[in-house]
């Protein structure tokens, strides 16, 4: 996610820079950062779909006691995400006002955007990684010794090839596809992006018509990756990004699937619709120059019955749901339907 006073719309087709800090936190510490409880801090923004993935996975796996979390506010300036939700505008653990401070601690001349999610090494105050696709996979695999009892297998070995294949198509066509629509700078570029996006959503509707989850009989990393885009579809992407063939609640299979996940502990209880809308409609000033934030849509329908249990499967397989959201990590009352 880039910065407020920067133009987001690109001439022709939007192309996302996908080169991230590829350092990994692993059991063997081969990149210099071994898995250690209490050593690292996950920095996120509830508004960001990429960061939302990490929030969900951390909660599902029960890593709260070993990986602390810091929340940036929903808007930011041209320089960096900021900790404006914290007293004094300073992260209480890292003692910094801007996420860029952690990036510059490790890379003084860091030339790229200051993105969330990021994991920061608390003792040095330096960013370790912002590689969001690898980050959640590593939470499932490298951090497994610290998972809660009953944690789900979000990246089970027998299904990894299929999860990777599905997740790749979800990323290129849906997660990034909505941005390709919203940031297109030409009619031709926009219409091509629109057609690609809805072709993929039709494919997902067909896939999910007779199976409850994307891969296998339980929730996996693939479901997490799709969910964060679906949750933002009607509040933001349908109007702001012109993804308006249908609203999510007009696509029966995907709408039921999204509600099923939303009502699963660890998913809907991470969604802050107020922050989501504020981020997109305020930060993307070249798309929405008035920075007026829409009042709707009504969110109560997220809690209506979805009927997906009839397809079989169990969200957590032989495991169990996570417990209540920790104090200090709850979505504020009135910000979500959950």
TrEMBL record:
Glutathione binds at residue 81. The active site is at residues 48, 179. CDD domains: GST_C_Omega_like (cd03190). It holds the Pfam family GST_C_2. GO terms for molecular function: glutathione transferase activity. Residues 156-283 form the GST C-terminal domain. The keyword Glycosyltransferase does not apply. One of its GO terms (cellular component) is cytoplasm. The record marks 237, 280 as: Lowers pKa of active site Cys. Residues 304-338 are annotated as: Disordered. Keywords: Transferase. The keyword Transferase applies. This is Glutathione S-transferase family protein. It comes from Mycolicibacterium hodleri.
